[in-house]
Amino acid sequence: MSSTLNTLTRNDKVHFIGIGGVSMSGLAEILLTKNIKVSGSDMKDSSITEHLRELGVEISIGHSPSNISEDVSVIVYTAAIAKDNPELVSANNRNLPMFTRAEFLGEIMKDYKHNIAVSGTHGKTTTTSMVSHILLKGEKDPTILVGGSLDIINGYVRTGKSDYFLTEACEYKGSFLSFYPTIGIILNIDADHLDYYKDIDEIEEAFQKFAYLIPRDGYLIVNNEDERAVNVAKNSNCNTITFGIDNGDIIAKNVTFNSLGHGSFDMFYKGCEYFHVTLKVPGRHNVLNSLSAMAAAIASGIEPNHIKAGIESFGGTHRRFEFKGTVDDITVIDDYAHHPTEIKATLEACKNVSHNRLICVFQPHTYTRTYSLFKDFSECFGGITKLVLADIYAAREKDTGIVSSQRLGDAIRLNGVDCINLHSFEEITNFLKTYAKAGDMIITVGAGDINKVGEDFLKSR
């Protein structure tokens, strides 16, 4: 089956509704390298839309039928776009071919021979970034789509000229079921996106369907420490590689952590020692992420020296345990963690970084996630000195009153955590200015815009 890309010509134009998203903008850039015209719309300007303008993309702010010019031949839209969106309605009336972001990404993948898709509830961006470094060291010249800004590719997307394509594979609304992976990674399977899935069993079923997409001669790489991921592997139809610190096809032996929390270990694959490796990112969870990335590299036939060089060159992705700065001997870190499991892993990584007191500033992400995982959120902040709880970041949702940051704070306080609720970034910054002392570490946590607090704090001293 030929892909949509193969049928497009320079006379066609693809219009993106919601072009300001990381993945949508990346797809637009890929089309530009293929000399296909692109236009797009979004609700507000951003650094991403400005960058696309500089590349020659026609950008409209606000949604209107007039944004879809007569020469538009294909529509791509995000899952957040409502069915009554005026551009979507206009495209329907004109009978234009329409694709969700995930469907169109799948169409693009059809043009590549080697498709590496990184899935899992946690760790997708970091692991995709690790694989990116390895593929580049191995001179595979890949096309890359990653969910965080990665310095080595100067952003979120890289367009290569080879048959290698690397992308994150998100399970939300079954998006990754539109993909065509030849190598699939499952980092973990946890309860999340419960506004779409009814329970964890349905989530596991989605990952099983994802595994079935991999051809028989392809590879499924799974976390041997995750029971549900192992279940998926047992029922898969392709080659499998398991990873784990203590058990699996690829393992880490003699693991140690330095004062920055960076792990060092001996990497073994199927009983044979490959090399000793030292990471530049902290935490046990990143040791696991690195093992999965190295497994994908082995499945891709990359030489061990390039694997080692690639993984050791990775210094992190923006907003993933990102060092923001130090002022008055107070260290500020930012992390994207927005799920209880991720928060626990992030706080565990903090233990290996030298500091006196640990001050965590958390911004819950979406009412649905906060409500569905309420008990887990109330219990995941052990081991910190002070928790500052911001208001819930609504993202795509409306406040229905089912949950609040104040209610979550009350539950956290009942579990013995010293927690304070503050309602504005200005309040939080002012509190940190008076509370934080030399030797302390401040970590801002959440998938919204809480990173601004750390930046404001550093500027204010």
Structure description:
- Cell wall formation.
- Belongs to the MurCDEF family.
- Its EC number is 6.3.2.8.
- Pfam families: Mur_ligase, Mur_ligase_C, Mur_ligase_M.
- Residues 319-448 form the Mur ligase C-terminal domain.
- The structure is a single chain.
- With 461 residues, the chain is α/β, with parallel strands linked by helices.
- The protein has three domains: 4-99, Rossmann fold; 112-313, Mur-like, catalytic domain (UDP-N-acetylmuramoyl-L-alanine:D-glutamate ligase), CATH 3.40.1190; 322-460, Mur ligase, C-terminal domain (Protein-Tyrosine Phosphatase, Chain A), CATH 3.90.190.
- It is 34% helix and 25% strand.
- It is built from 16 helices and 21 strands.
- It has helices spanning 4-7, 22-33, 47-54, 86-93, 101-109, 124-137, 200-212, 227-234, 284-299, 304-313, 340-350, 367-372, 374-378, 405-414, 425-435, 451-460, and strands at 13-17, 37-42, 58-61, 74-77, 98-100, 114-119, 143-150, 155-158, 164-168, 183-186, 219-223, 239-244, 250-257, 262-269, 272-282, 322-327, 330-335, 358-362, 386-389, 419-421, 441-445.
- It has a ten-stranded mixed beta sheet with strand order 8-7-9-6-10-11-12-13-14-15, sandwiched between helices. It has a six-stranded mixed beta sheet with strand order 16-17-21-18-19-20, sandwiched between helices.
- Strand 4 (74-77), helix 4 (86-93) and strand 5 (98-100) form a beta-alpha-beta unit.
Topology:
Layout: H1 4-7, E1 13-17, H2 22-33, E2 37-42, H3 47-54, E3 58-61, E4 74-77, H4 86-93, E5 98-100, H5 101-109, E6 114-119, H6 124-137, E7 143-150, E8 155-158, E9 164-168, E10 183-186, H7 200-212, E11 219-223, H8 227-234, E12 239-244, E13 250-257, E14 262-269, E15 272-282, H9 284-299, H10 304-313, E16 322-327, E17 330-335, H11 340-350, E18 358-362, H12 367-372, H13 374-378, E19 386-389, H14 405-414, E20 419-421, H15 425-435, E21 441-445, H16 451-460
Parallel strand pairs: 1-2, 1-4, 2-3, 4-5, 6-9, 6-10, 7-9, 10-11, 11-12, 12-13, 17-21, 18-19, 18-21, 19-20
Antiparallel strand pairs: 7-8, 13-14, 14-15, 16-17
Helix pairs in contact: 6-9, 6-10, 7-8, 9-10, 15-16
